[in-house]
Amino acid sequence: MSPAADFLPQGFDPAAAADPDSGLFGLDVPPEQARVHVHPVGFDATTSYRAGASRGPRAVLRASHQVDLFDRYFGRPYTAGIALVPAAARIEALQIEAFPRARRVIAAGGRIGDDKGLAADLAAVNGLGGALNRIVRESVEASLASGALPVVLGGDHAVPFGAMEALALRHPGLGILHFDAHADLRPAYEGFEWSHASILRNAMERLDGVTRLVQVGLRDLAEEEFEYQRASDGRISALFDDQWAEAALDGTRRALIKRTIALLPREVYVSFDVDGLDPVLCPNTGTPVPGGLSWHDAMAFLVELAKSGRRIVGLDLVEVSPGEPAETEDGLGEHDSWDANVGARLLYRLIGCALATRA
Questions:
Q1: pLDDT tens digit string along 261-296?
Q2: Residues near 9 by Cβ (< 8 Å), separated by ≥ 6?
Q3: What does pTM read for this prediction?
Q4: What does DSSP assign to residue 111?
Q5: Residues 146, 99 contacting (CB under 8 angstroms)
């Protein structure tokens, strides 16, 4: 891999406006020169409430051109080289095939009964979800082989399983730090084996290399998920949203952040579902829930994580949904989305945090 800033053109001005046709964050970085590979995965077939996260990667790319590249938290992440890896063409085909079939199953509440058509739809979506996992795993494996930090940009929360799989194989003993309103510990939600609501259950039960799961911001979960956490013999720990709110009353939040991070092993994968944030910051996400982390709460977690001595080996940002496209004066129908604006800035901070742990 080339030295960190070889990709920057002579006279590059990080404070200048981004070229509208430039890459992520206004950078045009060949993947072979980048220390960070962002993998766009526009897939949201199993989203159970509001769809739209499949358009998240494109919306975040557009919004990222407004992100200032100097960061008071983490300095100059852009100098590491951040490349948006071309999406595998098969991902769009999988979305087109899976989405309508999944909608029919979801409309039935996942109750298949003896309906052969719904049974065929469910089987097809499960198979397509498995194919997506393989595509993502192989893409992330290629990034790891080049020495780059892999970042998955969803899409719904089902999409990063392949990344978790690749990293758990390479880093046995891996811990997952999971920001979310939901526990995502349901078994095969609505019948979908690879559901957005089952991603962490799949990680804990299918990936031997994952030893700890630390969940932050939970405020909407099923009793069976709560019992699954309690029966995990310490493998799963949760900081619930009501506990976070209570800590604000007695001024113990900083200490609570440190105690939460201390539960993680040295090597960490960060999975950030934007609905872990206050929905004021992500109103169009698929399953918004009242409460959640403020922007500054989330930044405090990232700062303490960077200072903790742990090493982030991979991460994802999922469930950014730009909302419905709005017609613009140029007739392109693009949507300058608040959700994507927040998502782009969160992505840059997550990357900055990860790079700070790998310096």
A1: 999 999 999 999 999 999 999 999 999 999 999 999
A2: none
A3: 0.95
A4: -
A5: no
